[in-house]
Amino acid sequence: METRDDYKGVNYDDIIPAIAIHPGEILWEELKARRISRKAFAGQLGIERSVLTSLLKGRRDFTPDLAQRLEQALHIDATLWTNLQAAYENDLRRIAERERQEAAPAAPIAMQYAV
């Protein structure tokens, strides 16, 4: 069984996720857990249902204004939503960078050991 000691010295900034999770996925899980319909929730937020659907499917970003509306509607701090959006964008950037590095041609072995 792993313990916290197994992870001492791990720099979590160096860990790049396999996928980026959009805050809409987390919001969708919250709505399901609370049994809130998309139609009712869109009305509560004062947005079109199509906009909410785009948010839930990760096609729209979570703005500070939306985060405030979510805080009022769900009583979940707006900072959480803005932090989730920032983390999502950061993960996308890091994943893209990793993919660029993996796609870059490797230097020939002889050049790696050149004196």
TrEMBL record:
GO terms of molecular function: DNA binding
UniProt entry tagged with the keyword S-adenosyl-L-methionine: no
Top-rank taxon: Bacteria
The keyword tRNA-binding belongs to this UniProt entry's keyword annotation: no
Stretches assigned to the HTH cro/C1-type domain: 27-81
Record InterPro entries: Cro/C1-type_HTH, Lambda_DNA-bd_dom_sf, Toxin_antidote_HigA
Alphabetical UniProt keywords: DNA-binding
SUPFAM superfamilies given in the database record: lambda repressor-like DNA-binding domains (SSF47413)
Protein name, as recorded: HTH cro/C1-type domain-containing protein
Organism: Tannerella sp. oral taxon BU063 isolate Cell 1/3
